[in-house]
Amino acid sequence: MRLVYRIMHTWMATPFVWGQSDCCLGLADWHMLVKGGEDPAAALRGAYCDAVSCQQLCGWFTRPVEVIEDCLARVGGLPRVVAPEVGDVAVIVIPRKERPLPAGALWLGDCWGCKGPEGATTLSPTLVRPLACWGMDHAA
């Protein structure tokens, strides 16, 4: 099974829990699966328990790109890319009536995959806006 679908199945089978298995930590799990080594989000894992404490700890809702950049910097970083390839990661913005919602996402080739409250979801690129993308340099 292709690794991108393996991680999507893992996200589907795992409940969404802030600070344990959320969209940001899902990207860290993906990084460890592909690249191995240290957890890029080790400093965040288990350090918050809801949206409010997540924002207080790292600023996810106001500076999501910087949160991912900070995590990636801990493990040597990844290059930014303009056109993602399968397996690349991003921060996307999901439009909502209340306020736009940032989310960590994985490019699947024709849509974005996200870890969310319903497990895992796919989102059309026409419905979301990427804020930043990073190349995983991996044949996913």
Task: Write up this protein.
The chain is of the alpha+beta class and 140 residues long. The chain has a single domain (3-134), classed as endopeptidase fold (from Nostoc punctiforme), CATH 3.90.1720. The protein contains four helices and five strands. It has helices at residues 3-13, 23-35, 51-58, 64-73; strands at residues 89-94, 101-107, 112-116, 119-123, 129-134. A five-stranded antiparallel sheet has the order 4-3-2-1-5. Strand 3 and strand 4 (119-123) form a beta hairpin. Helix 1 (3-13) packs antiparallel against helix 2 (23-35). The protein is globular. The chain starts with a helix and ends in a 6-residue tail after the last strand. The model has no long low-confidence stretch (mean pLDDT 94).
Give the topology, please.
Blueprint: H1 3-13, H2 23-35, H3 51-58, H4 64-73, E1 89-94, E2 101-107, E3 112-116, E4 119-123, E5 129-134
Antiparallel strand pairs: 1-2, 1-5, 2-3, 3-4
Helix pairs in contact: 1-2
Domain DUF6950: 7-126
InterPro entries: DUF6950
Pfam family, one: DUF6950
Structurally, the number of domains stands at: 1
Oligomeric state: single chain
Task: Tell me the overall shape.
Answer: globular
Task: Report the total helices.
Answer: 4
- The chain-level structural class is alpha+beta
CATH topology: endopeptidase fold (from Nostoc punctiforme)
The percent range for strand residues is 15-25%
Low-confidence stretches: none
Question: What topology, given as strand order, has the largest sheet?
Answer: 4-3-2-1-5
Number of strands: 5
What is Rg? 14 Å
